[in-house]
Amino acid sequence: MNLPHLHLISFAICPFVQRSVITLKYKEAPFELSLIDLADPPDWFRTRSPLGKVPLLIVDHDTVLFESAVINEYIDAITPPALMATDPLEQARTRAWIEYLSEQTFAQYHWMTAATEDAFELARHTAARGLERLEQQMTQDDRLAAPGFSLIDATLAPILMRYALLEDPDSPWEAEAFPRLAARWDQLREMPAVRDSVPTDFAAQLADYLRQQDGFAPAHFAPQLDASA
Questions:
Q1: CA separation for the pair 33, 9 (Å, rounded)
Q2: Which of 77, 78, 92, 223 is most buried, judging by how many CB atoms fall within 10 Å of its CB?
Q3: How far apart are CA 49 and CA 180, in angstroms?
Q4: In this predicted model, what pLDDT tens digit does every residue of 18-47 receive, in sequence order?
């Protein structure tokens, strides 16, 4: 397979970057990985990233792609067999669920970084509602319930990985409450592409990131992550 040179610019614990790492590893596409500090990015990154965000994929040292969903579709398109359906309606349904999961990624982040206890509770309820709808739709939508790995799974795995890591009585995630999602996570967590998509010290790095944030939730979660690291 004659592929272009793929250079992924990343922040080690970003769930959006992790989506693309999962896709690259699942499709067995060789890639170069560079980690940057988003709090103090290099000048070249500021110049090349239109949104100032990661992930950024530089193709053949020249062309820049941004936004994880776009990057993943490109990776999929150049590494057969394709995960994305050929039917336009099925493609649209896949993209719609990926967008939904992007919203759930932000809901999770707001829960993890809530500044006050009230904000924490509100974020927990918002995230729980999102998971409830996803669990319900898995009984109705074959895009979500398909047995094989999909681009939707590449988007879902980072969310479930963080919920599994942050076991907490006040978590929106309870495996018993979401049996279909829990079963999907049991499948995904065993996949090398998912398992190897984060650093080996991921829990410690996530704890360090949270310690740099102010507020109720970071102070609540960082010690838990330290204990599991």
A1: 6
A2: 78
A3: 37
A4: 999 999 999 999 999 999 988 899 999 989
Q: In sequence order, which residues have a C-beta less than 8 Å from that of residue 5 and are 6 or more positions away?
A: 32, 59, 60, 61
H or E stretch covering 39: none
Return the closest-CA partner of residue 45 out of 11, 4, 15: 11
Dihedral sign from CA coordinates of 89, 92, 94, 100: negative
Q: Coil, strand or helix: which one is 46? A: helix
For residue 106, what are the CA distances in angstroms to 101, 127, 151?
A: 9, 9, 18
The token pair that represents 173 in the structure block: 């995630």
Place of tokens 């982040």: 109
Asked whether the beta carbons of 55 and 7 are under 8 A apart, the reply is: no
Place of tokens 């681009």: 151
What span, in angstroms and rounded, lies between the C-alpha atoms of 91 and 94?
5
What is residue 62's predicted lDDT score, i.e. its pLDDT? 94
The phi-psi region of residue 67 (left if phi > 0; otherwise alpha if psi is between -120 and 50; otherwise beta) is left
The tokens describing 65, both together, are 């792609």
**Are the C-beta atoms of residues 106 and 68 closer than 8 Å to each other?**
no
